Structures are given as structure tokens and as C-alpha cells.
Amino acid sequence: EFESTVAAIFTDAADSYFTHEEIELSYDPVLEAKKHLVIGVQTYWFLDVGAKHDHSVLTGCYVQQDEREPRFQQVYCFLIHIYPQGYPLTRVAGSEIADNDGWHTEKSVKEYLDEYSVDGMRPVFGYDVTGNECMKALFQSIAVDGEDVKFSLQKKSAMYQRLKYYMEKRLLHRVKSPQFNYQFGRLRVTKSKRGHLDIIHHEKESDRD
After folding, report:
1. 172 — phi, psi (to 5°)?
2. What is the pTM of this model?
């Protein structure tokens, strides 16, 4: 069923890869109400590292077995922190920096991981190093262990296909985020003759990740 689902061409009236219904139904008001109660459970974190003109985005999730279908897990994204465009990566990571660099302070990755530690153990953390190789050394310098992920076209294609399936089956739950609605509603995909997602981009170049 999974293969047949992702092999189809997914479009809505605006040719978005994710439909309006999928985006709207991924919002979980119950999760929104209890997101502050997640402390003390096993969580998983990923940082999408933004280039100079993009936003860095940190997402925190936890998973639960799907009672209806044991093969799958329900994914609950209880935190979506979107850093300002161009926000210094040293600040994103949590390095000690001068307070007079012209930027206001946002909660760093290191602070989040410390806050959501369980029994002194930080949660599982991964980050995107595609075009940002400096991040590995940066996190090592502040003693933050993480899985550095480099997205090839094939990996990115597989990721979006799996995400599409989870959105269709309502296995993904997330808190309120206007940027999530905006970005997911403008994602465009073209496919190769072999069925792979060749190009993943937004409708306009100004729609930054």
C-alpha cells in the first residue's frame, strides 16, 4: 500500500505536494494543549540548518505505537522553533557569544536538549550538514552529540515520500505553526520517469525553507 500511495501524483488545486486537508488535519489541538507536559519522556530532535537567506528550524518530537496498526508509530511534533532568517549558527547551536552582536537571544539547541534530558541523558538529536559542514565542529566544541545527516537527492526524495504517507494516514501530529502551513502549502515536486522526486522546491524563490 505504501509503494502504491507514494507512486501517485499528489496535487491539490494549487499543485502543492501536500493537500490543504493534510496540512490542516496534521494540527493537533490536544497536543497543543499538553505540549508543556512532555518533560520527562523520550524525545527526538532534528535541526534543519538554514543557510544565510533561510531559517534554521528545530523540531522536537516523541513517538507512540499506533494502536490501530502496530506496524506504524504516531509521531507527535510538540515543538517547532523557527529561528529568525540569518540568525547566527553559533547562537542557534548554543555557543557562548558576546551579547552585543546585534541579535536578540533565542533559546538554543543546547538549552532545549538540556531541558528535555531524562535522567541526565540528552535526547536523540540529528542535524542537517548539507552545505553546512561547519556545524559538526560547532556542536563538538560545545559538547553536543548529534547525528550529522547529509541529504542526497535520493535521501531527500525518500524523506518526502515517507512524510507524505504519514500526512495522508494522519500519523503526524503537530502544534500550531503558521510557517508550517505556509511552507507545506507551497512545496512543489517534479518526478522523474522512474518515479523519484527529482526537484523539491517552492512555488517562488522568496518562499524560503
Report:
1. -105, 125
2. 0.84
